[in-house]
Write a structure and sequence with these properties.
two-stranded antiparallel sheet; 11 helices
């Protein structure tokens, strides 16, 4: 018997005399298909509800001149403040610049790929740092007690204050601007990976740890054979949070680094020329949001693949 085969769950009670142990009920194919179908339908339903709220609020404001019972609405509903959704959608097919046949959608997707690449580098660097810190905190308690409060405090500092410093440090070191953006993304990504990985590494029950010690397994063997497999669900939960944070960090980093590329720069340019085309800013934000969602969904697929045998139990 190996350590990886130990089950943390209690053994089922013995079957009564003359009765067989009840077999675990597995979800039918129909139920699994319905669950897979319900998730995208639920997301689509939420999008429809939000679209109706947007257009309904705009129609109400236009009808009452943005005032109800003498109180002004919190957001003006004119076309400059709240373009119609079909106007935003139509801007995606319009040229991105005057005299340029490239559509706004193609331009924004191209800029988004730059941001996602920076976010991916930041996620990889931040995840490796987070895993290393989790292992260090697990085995060296004084370091954990002394360093953990500073890690928590680092996440309370506004990103707009940290980003320029990272850009300046990267420039002094002779690094390209995209490296500073990657560093900002990694700065936001490492913390959720550290916290969730540490929790996962501590999740194996004492009986399993005692068994590993009884067979003479050292710290490294316990770590690779028991703690890491048990921590995988926690690690992926941290990675999903880190993926969202890395995209946000990359976008904010592009605003400070002056890379000239990326969806962050596209959003800043659209904001600068907002009065000439407010729908372009909303379109850029929409594309950035969709890119972030897809980025996280890719990690969710990787999690499902990595934990497919565990989910099948």
């Amino acid at each position: 018997m190996t350590a990886t085969n130990i089950s943390a769950s209690p053994r089922p009670p013995a079957a009564r005399k003359g009765q067989a142990d009840p077999a675990p009920r597995e979800p039918g194919r129909g139920g699994a298909f319905l669950r897979r179908l319900t998730d995208p339908l639920g997301a689509l339903l939420i999008m429809v509800v939000l679209a109706c709220l947007w257009e309904g609020y705009k129609a109400l404001g236009q009808a009452v001149d943005d005032r109800i019972l003498g109180i002004g609405l919190p957001v003006a509903t004119d076309d400059l403040s709240m373009p119609h959704l079909w106007t935003i959608a139509g801007s995606l097919t319009a040229p991105a610049r005057a005299g340029d046949p490239t559509s706004l959608a193609v331009y924004l997707i191209g800029e988004t790929t730059v941001t996602l690449r920076e976010a991916l580098y930041g996620l990889a660097a931040g995840s490796l740092l987070g895993l290393a810190l989790a292992v260090l905190f697990l085995h060296v308690a004084p370091v954990s007690k002394g360093l953990m409060p500073w890690l928590v405090a680092s996440q309370t500092v506004p990103l707009v204050a940290i980003a320029p410093m990272i850009v300046i440090w990267g420039g002094k070191a002779g690094l390209p601007p995209w490296a500073a953006v990657t560093g900002i993304a990694a700065y936001l990504a490492f913390f959720p990976v550290t916290i969730n990985s540490l929790r996962g590494l501590k999740s194996p029950p004492k009986v399993q740890l005692d068994f590993m010690r009884s067979v003479g397994a050292g710290r490294a063997r316990v770590l690779w054979s028991l703690r890491f497999p048990a921590a995988l669900p926690y690690v992926f939960a941290g990675l999903r949070l880190a993926a969202t944070a890395s995209v946000v960090g990359a976008i904010v980093g592009e605003l400070s680094a002056g890379t000239g590329r990326g969806i962050g720069r596209a959003i800043l340019t659209s904001a600068y020329y907002y009065s000439n085309g407010p729908e372009k800013l909303y379109a850029a934000v929409l594309v950035a949001a969709i890119a972030g969602i897809l980025f996280v969904q890719v990690l969710a697929l990787l999690e499902r693949f990595a934990l497919r045998h565990r989910h099948a139990r």
